[in-house]
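Thread: Newbie trying to understand structure tokens

Hi all, I'm a second-year student working on a class project, and my supervisor (Dr. K.) asked me to get a predicted structure for one chain before our next meeting. I've only ever worked with sequences, so writing a 3D structure as a token string is new to me. If someone could post the tokens and maybe explain what I'm looking at, I'd be very grateful. Here's the chain:
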Amino acid sequence: MEIVYVYVKKRSEFGKQCNFSDRQAELNIDIPPNPELSSLYVERNPVDTGIQCSASMSEHEANTERFEMESCGVNHIEGGWPKDVNPQELEQTIRFRKKVEKDENYINAVMQLGSIMEHCIKQNNAIDIYEEYFDDEEGVEVTEEAPSAKTINVFRDPQEIKRTATHLSWHPDGNKKLAVAYSCLNFQRAPVGMSHESYIWDLENPNRPEIALKPSSPLVTLEYNPKDSHVLLGGCYNGQIACWDTRKGSLVAELSTIEFSHRDPVYGTIWLQSKTGTECFSASTDGQPTKFMVGTEQGIVISCNRKAKTSAEKIVCTFSGHHGPIYALQRNPFYPKNFLTVGDWTARIWSEDSRESSIMWTRYHMAYLSDGAWSPVRPAVFFTTKMDGTLDIWDLVFKQCDPALSLKVCDEALFCLRVQDTGCLIACGSQLGTTTLLEVSSSLSTLQRNEKNIASSIFERETRREKILEARHREMRLKEKGKAEGKDDEQKDEEMALNLEELVAKAEEEFFEVIFSELKRKEVEALRKSPKPKKPSVETEDVEDLLEENAGEEEEAGEQAGEEREEDVSP
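---
Reply by user tm_fold:
Sure, no problem. This is what the structure looks like when written as tokens:
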């Protein structure tokens, strides 16, 4: 049905109609200038004003036809059977099918349809009608661009007493904000008057923080709630867990009681994937880790099961390989069976299938490593920070022995890093509270062609290699154990005799070295004391006699020392 509306409006309401025509110029009024009137006005020079011939006026109307859509379903039931055949009875249907199959018309129809079907099958075999010619899921081609990064912004601690940026967290919606936790982790060395505030920064305004979070104790860790961007979870230095709602201001909204808090600083907090979005984990060095997998101060990774019923089942397995505390532990977002640890002077990649040693590791650096994280978009890329202020970007597809890109971010030690969800931006926190925002090149933030398969093959290959080496080591240890148990007393006596002979020979050698050095020293002193003649004071024959005498003395001294040594060593 068509709807028509007639708009009625008087012509006078549109304004005076403009009628244009060609005619000669005419003078309507002529006012000559009056110099006396100038004293009544103040001259303004220059004068700028905007003018327009007439006001803009327009009026229009549009009316579209309404189109209503309705979704409905169709219930398909088995039909086409004759009235005298019950489709529910198996015998009747079989009898009817046999009768139809003997009909000549049925045979001709099947033969005709068979030829058509055969033609379609041959076409499908020749051309894949389901082929996707523009599939973007595999990512772009490998770019020739060299890995690079540039500094976007720097967020400095506004307090006069500088503190360490201990943890970073990106805003879950759009990543336009960055939450930074500030604290001093030196035991009982916090400066007097140090502020407890942590801040939320807007990436476009590095001059001043957007919101200041005011806890009762300095924050060591700070995490955004992925389901509610207004809620943040913080772990305090005194072991308490604090929660903020930015809609309510800077003060703490919820705080755990002292009785049910940690006894040491809370070094890690994460939100759990639950229906309510209010469950979280916390970890500390007081022996209460509630995480699934934690790194200890002794360099051991412990895999835990929080749903275990007994204490023995809570610790599933352990991984040991670092010589000091583990400062970072993160699973690969594409292959959760492989995880990254950062501790002492190396970063190591582990596999849950190989528990005795890591499958890959970096070389030992001169500076201590402080943090590490995987790239959220590339499975073969991870980042590490060092105490000399350097950020290393590793690309296992490009090279495995050295980092693909190493950047000197600042002069002080880098303490933490956090990668944006898109993989383009990296935030690094330093010891003096400076947070540096870096943007990496597209080659480091874009999934490369066939990278997932390459990374998977690398991890599987190294895992198999470690399993072979572990089996070989176990076999060698069993053989050594069997040899040690099978040694008899004669072999032990022979070893003792050999060791005794070696000790005697070594003692004789040291004794003769002392004698020769003493004789040489006496000769040098004698040469210094004697005057410097024009010609040598000792002829060649005298020198030979002197050497023969020294050799005789050395032989006598050696024989005498050997007799004394034999007397000392003999049982």
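A couple of things are worth pointing out once you decode it. The radius of gyration is 44 Å. The longest helix spans residues 489-529. Feel free to ask follow-ups in this thread.
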